[in-house]
UniProtKB/TrEMBL annotation:
Presence of the UniProt keyword Transcription in the record: yes
Keywords: Transcription, Transcription regulation
Organism: Streptomyces roseochromogenus subsp. oscitans DS 12.976
InterPro entries assigned to the protein according to its UniProt record, in alphabetical order: Class_I_gatase-like, DJ-1/PfpI, Homeodomain-like_sf, HTH_AraC, INH-QAR
Ranges of residues in domain HTH araC/xylS-type: 214-312
Name of one Pfam family that matches: DJ-1_PfpI
Descriptive protein name: AraC family transcriptional regulator
PROSITE patterns referenced in this protein's UniProt entry, alphabetically: HTH_ARAC_FAMILY_2
Gene Ontology molecular function, alphabetical: DNA-binding transcription factor activity; sequence-specific DNA binding
Length: 319
């Protein structure tokens, strides 16, 4: 197998973990299987850059003299808000020539500005998805997944999702055993499915302004197996079902039913990841009632069945 060169783009205001997270994954794979990756970093002029957290990174070379890599990785950070026009021009010229283009977090904003996401499906940090869609209408922005693959272009969500994407690329380039060895060394999960939601139900929904609705949100989270029908929740909020459904959606940004679905799925995921409880018990305590109902919810939302989800996160439980 030919060695793949990976080039990480550095700039002032870059998010350090957007760089170091994926970099550690690929460097770990190289240590495990020598000759697979050559990891390089570069800034516009080859000089040091200061990250958004104040850490100084010293690149290996200048972007202007760096050879075309196999994989070009563009991180995000505060420096993407007012990017250097020279960096956008460099990306516009070099991006189409690389076999694989990867962005982490708001790095998607940079490659979109260079026209490299036009006509493609992409994601970024959930807080910037609206901006990406608004500023670049030719990009099909999906705010849900932790990463998206569209041809040779891969975009990932906020910060640590860059690690998930890097592990998925290592598994694709080499094999699962190498990716698993790297994940174990870094003490992270092998990989989360790319279509796993970026954030929890509580983060996805806005917090209601009115106290009775906030109390309902808390109740749902603490009692996923309870009676969570609109009628029951409306009674808890002391509102009519129609008034409750309308108010809940206005204040949280989603319907009560969708919020309940997200909370139950999140609860089941955590039990699959963190406990040895059986599938039937998890289905019951998460409010699904039956394993089949839980399986349908997992396949619809995550594209995988509960047993396969657990195998990815807790392989020791499925041996």
């Amino acid at each position: 197998m030919a060695q793949r060169t990976l080039l990480f783009v550095l700039f002032d205001g870059v998010q350090s973990l957007d760089v170091t997270g994926p970099l550690e994954v690929f460097a770990g794979a190289e240590k495990h299987t020598p000759g697979t990756y050559r990891v390089r970093t570069a800034s516009l002029d080859g000089g040091p850059v200061r990250t958004s957290s104040g850490l100084t990174l010293v690149p290996d070379e200048a972007l202007t003299t760096a050879p075309d890599p196999h994989t070009l990785l563009v991180p995000g950070g505060q420096g993407t808000r007012l990017p250097d026009p020279r960096l956008i021009a460099w990306l516009r010229a070099r991006g189409p020539r690389v076999p694989r283009l990867v962005s982490v977090c708001t790095g998607a904003i940079l490659i979109a500005a260079a026209g490299l996401l036009d006509g493609r499906r992409a994601t970024t940090h959930w807080a910037y998805c609206d901006k990406l869609a608004r500023d670049h209408p030719a990009v099909a922005v999906d705010p849900e997944p932790i990463y998206v693959r569209d041809g040779h272009v891969a975009t990932s969500a906020g910060v640590t999702s860059g690690i998930d994407l890097a592990l998925a690329l290592v598994e694709e380039d080499l094999d699962r055993d190498v990716a698993l060895a790297v994940a174990r060394h870094l003490v992270v999960f092998l990989r989360r499915p790319g279509n796993q939601a970026q954030f929890s139900a509580q983060l996805a929904a806005q917090t209601a302004q009115r106290a009775p609705l906030r109390e309902v949100q808390r109740w749902i989270t603490e009692h996923p197996a309870g009676d969570l029908t609109v009628e029951s929740l409306a009674a808890r909020a002391r509102l009519s079902p129609r008034h409750f459904a309308r108010a809940f959606r206005e204040e949280t940004g989603m319907t009560p039913g969708r919020y309940v679905d997200r909370v139950r799925l999140e609860h089941a995921r955590r039990l699959l990841e963190d406990t040895a409880d059986g599938i039937e018990e998890i289905a019951r305590t998460s409010g699904y009632g039956t394993p089949e109902a839980m399986r349908r919810a997992f396949v619809k939302t995550l594209g995988t069945a509960p047993a396969e989800y657990r195998r990815r996160f807790r392989p020791a439980l499925t041996r």
